[in-house]
Amino acid sequence: MNQRDVVFPAGRQALYERNRYSPAVRANGFLFVSGQVGSREDGSPEPGLQAQVRLAFENLNAVLKAADASFGDVVDVTVFIVDPEANFETIWEVVPEYWGDAPYPNITCVGVTWLYGFQFEIKVVVKLPSEEAR
User: Which of 18, 20, 19, 22 is nearest to 7 (CA)?
Assistant: First the structure.
């Protein structure tokens, strides 16, 4: 079995070890990032939907930074939203703060009934910059 090339953001290793998953895995020029939520360092949800979305993006950006990447390298996004009919517009008021300019990555939005106490989760696939581009 190949060893996974795991990426850990600074200061969050204990949370990932406790929950038994990798925040991101590099493979064949891509970075596959686990779903990021608006969790504080202790794993608890940030109160307030917009604050939770902002923290989810900050947590995502910490993983991307640890891999020497940025949101501009993201090619595929999946978001999970609890009660999307009620929450989508509120969430999408925050997204442009992190999304950047066009061209945008592709996206799949999934409505869910439960996210372990969270209301929003974002998972991405990144095309890593080549060594020559760094």
Answer: 22
- Rounded to two decimals, the pTM is 0.92
Kindly report, residue by residue over 76-100, the tens digit of the pLDDT.
999 999 999 999 999 999 999 999 8
The answer to whether 71 touches 97, Cβ cutoff 8 Å, is no
Residue 134 located in a structural domain: no
Query: Which are the contacts of 40, defined by CB distance < 8 A and separation ≥ 6?
Result: 46, 55
Task: Report the half-sphere exposure of 105 (CA within 13 A, side-chain side).
Answer: 24
In terms of residue numbers, what domain contains 69? 5-129
Say how far apart CA 119 and CA 14 lie, in whole Å. 23
Count structural domains, the chain.
1
